[in-house]
Amino acid sequence: MVARLRGRYGSGIDPKTYLGQNYIVADPSIVYELLQILRDDEQYDYCVDVTAVHYPQRKDQEFDIVWILYSFEHNQRVRVKAMIKDGDPAPSVVALWTTANWLERECYDMFGIRFEGHPDLRRILLPDGWKGHPLRKEYGITQQDSEWVKINLGIESGQ
Question: pLDDT tens digits, residue range 109-124?
């Protein structure tokens, strides 16, 4: 599989293995096409998760978007990563795997990453008026939206 993908994308992908776990680092410009090929040609028919990792020290590519895929046919798992800047969208894969719908919404809610082409991108865990994205590194562990808490719960934050 790796040889076929390298033949097609060359340096656009960087296949790696860490502790027996396979993953591919892909250029963001080809990641949607790569994911579609993994689904259609390599039988990765289940999208297990869509998540992100925040690296604020990497100013030009602050986020890794991570798609975790599983092939029932081959009983194999692969992760695909693409690095994006804060504010840049990632491609929605809801058209490829419907399970990505809520996974992308969670990633948007927790990290603030927009998924271009998502059919209904809105918060899924936090209330609509919540400010901030709790899984970003700059979001303090005890931070909460005290304005929202006061308005909606009628209490002071921390009570």
Answer: 999 999 999 999 999 9
Q: pTM to 2 decimals? A: 0.90
- Rounded Cα–Cα distance for residues 156 and 159 (Å): 6
Burial 10-47 (b: 16+ CB within 10 A, else e): eebbeeeeeeeeebbbbebeebbebbebbbeebebeeb
Q: From CA 10, how far away is CA 97, in angstroms rounded?
A: 26
CATH of 2-125, one of 3.40.50.720, 2.40.30.170, 3.30.460.80, 3.30.70.20: 3.30.460.80
CB 12 within 8 A of CB 30: yes
Cα-Cα end-to-end distance for the chain: 55
Tens of pLDDT, residue by residue over 129-148, are: 888 999 999 987 777 777 78
- Count CB neighbours of 110 within 10 A: 21
